[in-house]
Amino acid sequence: MRVTVLCENTIGVPIPKGLMGEHGLSFLIEGNHSVLYDTGQGVGILNNMALLGKNAPAIDKIIISHGHYDHTGGLMPVLKQRKSAVPVYIHSDAFQNKIASIETPNGNFEIPIGFQHTKKDYEACGAEFRFVDHFTKIDNHIYAISDIERPEGWKTWDVRLKYKDDDSILDDPFDDDLSLLLETDSGPVVLLGCAHAGVVEILNDLSGKTGYTEFHAIIGGTHLGSAPEDYVNRAMETFKQYNVKVVGTSHCTGFHASSKIMSHFKDEFVVASVGSVFDF
């Protein structure tokens, strides 16, 4: 199984020329089928796919990790490159009206951070939405997990992230936060979109539902960039607990947390940037 980073904040390879970085994330998983996991903001995905020798019509399935713009923005451009419909696996809560609530000395304001188009618009361009929850098989050796089990009263530490229900602004519980488990020849691999539900909680829930006590690799956005220091330490201890051999951070992990993880895991650490390829 091969995983290629199509979209990410940084570019990891100098060749081919012209690759684009953006605040977002997208992986292409190539095994029995070609599966796109997230689509970035939509700025670089088609450009990067073309330069990396990939093409949208060859994609068999699409999976969306959650409903934020930096993971969904490329969905419409990808759909418009195709002549046939494609299944899109997603949690139903991803279509909530997601916003960032920003506090300033001059008052609060809201920024829309959800899908740029309606569900019907995507369907008109060939998206066949298939709503998944909890632990679901997506493809041979690819499983999705959402509705992560968390402690009573759990809240995200990124207090800006909300959703609107009519005129009410509510904390986002991130039940739609959807991570992937890949069963590979190297062992179980975890792909993370943003890990809004907590990377520690995700790994523990995956272990509980699958029986796996070790994960070969953890790759993707860990959302440790805004996490308190003690949680970053807990995350690293959890990686050690599950005997992780490859820790590939990206996107929302942040430089501070990535540097700390790199200094701790050394040769087991890698930055999962645009153009990075992982063979398992």
Any overview of this molecule?
- The protein has a single domain (2-279), classed as Ribonuclease Z/Hydroxyacylglutathione hydrolase-like (Metallo-beta-lactamase, Chain A, 4-Layer Sandwich), CATH 3.60.15.
- The model has no long low-confidence stretch (mean pLDDT 96).
- The protein has a 7-stranded mixed sheet. It has a 7-stranded mixed sheet with strand order 9-10-13-14-15-16-17. A 4-stranded antiparallel sheet has the order 7-6-11-12, with no helix packed on it.
- The radius of gyration is 18 Å and the shape is globular.
- The protein has helices spanning 45-51, 69-72, 75-80, 119-124, 199-210, 229-241, 255-265; strands spanning 2-7, 26-30, 34-37, 61-63, 86-90, 97-104, 107-112, 127-131, 135-139, 142-145, 161-165, 168-171, 179-184, 187-192, 217-221, 246-250, 269-271, 277-279.
- The longest helix has 13 residues, at 229-241.
- It has 7 helices and 18 strands.
Salient structural properties:
280 residues, alpha/beta, Metallo-beta-lactamase, Chain A, seven-stranded mixed β-sheet, 7 helices, globular
Number of beta strands: 18
Instruction: Report the order of strands and helices.
Output: EEEHEHHEEEHEEEEEEEHEHEHEE
Query: For the residues shown, what is the average pLDDT?
Result: 96
Annotated CATH topology? Metallo-beta-lactamase, Chain A
Percent in strands: 25-35%
Number of domains: 1
CATH class designation: Alpha Beta
What composes the largest sheet?
7 strands, mixed
The first-to-last residue Cα distance is: 5 Å
Radius of gyration: 18 Å
- Low-confidence segments, given as residue ranges, are none
Biggest sheet, spatial arrangement of strands: 8-5-4-3-2-1-18
Q: Kindly state the percentage of residues in helix.
A: 10-25%
Q: In the CATH classification, which architecture applies?
A: 4-Layer Sandwich
Shape descriptor reads globular
- The helix count comes to 7
The CATH homology group name: Ribonuclease Z/Hydroxyacylglutathione hydrolase-like
Give the helix/strand class.
Answer: alpha/beta
